[in-house]
Amino acid sequence: MRVTSRLRTTPFSILDRSRTRQGRERSQALRDTVRFAQQAEALGYHRFWVSEHHSVPGVAGSAPTVLASAVAAATVRIRVGTGGVMLPNHRPLVVAEQFGVLESLFPGRIDMGLGRSVGFTDGIRRALGTEKDAAQDFGAQLDELLGWFTGEQGAYPQVHAHPAEGLRLPVFVLATGAGAELAARAGLSLVIGDLRGRDEMLRAIDRYRAGFRPSAWSSAPYVVVSGNVAVAGTAEEARRLLLPEAWAMAYSRTHGAFPPLAPASEIEAREMTEKERGFYERGLRGQLYGTEDEVAAALDELIERSDADEVLITTSTYDREALLDSYRRLARVMGLSTASTEAEPCAAGSDLDDAYAALAEHAHVLGIRGEHHLR
Questions:
Q1: Are residues 154 and 240 in the same domain?
Q2: CB proximity list for 70: less than 8 A, separation 6 or greater
Q3: 90, 65 contact by CB (below 8 A)
Q4: Does residue 58 fall inside a structural domain?
Q5: 19, 131, 214, 224: which could form a disulfide with 316 (CB 3.0–4.6 Å)?
Q6: Which domain holds residue 276?
Q7: How far from chain centre, in Å, is Cα 221?
Q8: Is residue 302 part of a domain?
């Protein structure tokens, strides 16, 4: 396999949503995320991000800054962040304080990724104290949040976000359409899906670059393209890795609940309604999967078309070993050292329990009490 200069010089990162699996405890998904971060670091990935979802059966990641702290404590070099904190669900002051704590504990390693989504249902939104149209206030919330870091917010005189005030960390907006334009206006980096190279995505990237205003956070546009990528020994094996997520998406669209991941074999044997089958096939259409050579060619073309500065991989599947193998193969596609692609379960030769012990030393800062919360 020939690794192109484009692939070799483009950073690749990971977003893990702590997907739950049939027959496994939700807590296991969070522990899997921490271990996966250690493996990603050993493989040479650039960043490792976690997500925010509330009252979703298929996702355990509901407190991204807490989980990011666990990941950062369990790793050494890899950048750690959120993909993202949904700003309409939070007071900007609290978000600033949380990231100020993270950056203070793990200086130079923290990314602040922000989104504008609200809860999936009216009940979740009420529980979060927000409304369906709260996303419309994202621009104002973003301005306030950044103001807490610079000390320039004027809405609350004599109030300061300690220890965030005066700190600078990379800020990313997860967005398409209007969100991309907000990122440009604020001078922030953009994370945009998907990896299908569609004209709509490319037009949004063009608008972002054209409207970008240099800021204290970024002097030039920075585009991260995100989506699912699966790599295996054959194209069919790689495609099977995508089946659990495609079915979960189809089920959520037809039943109103996003379920835990099921084994690919169970999904292949499932009798689907016509409507379910339509959403399922749509979820698979256009995804990037294949052998190392096939995926290398597809990613090289994507990066060329979008002029992406970075690629964020968001793949989830039921089979954790097959998932790790996919990321190992992708590391080879990127031209990372083959010596690092064995990906020992724990970084720097440490045991996962040591990582939790290290986190426990910092836990009081986040208001966590008792080691049982960390296991």
A1: no
A2: 30, 34, 355, 356, 359, 374
A3: no
A4: yes
A5: 19
A6: 234-290
A7: 20
A8: no
Residue type at 353 in one-letter notation: D
Segment 193-202, tens digit of pLDDT: 875 557 889 9
Query: In total, how many domains does the chain have?
Result: 2
**Residue 330 included in any domain:** yes
Contacts of 192 (CB under 8 A, 6+ apart): 174, 175, 176, 180, 201, 204, 205, 208, 223, 224, 225, 226
How confident is the model over 252-300, as pLDDT tens digits? Answer: 999 989 999 999 999 999 999 999 999 999 999 878 999 999 999 999 9
How many Å is the Cα radius of gyration of the chain? Answer: 20
Name the amino acid, one letter, at 241. Answer: L
- The three-point CA angle 62-48-297 to 5° equals 125
pLDDT tens digits for range 100-122: 999 999 999 999 999 998 877 88
How far is 363 from 365, CA to CA, in rounded Å? 5
* Whether 112 and 252 share a structural domain: no
The owner of tokens 């990231």 is 99
Q: Is the pTM of this model over 0.85?
A: yes
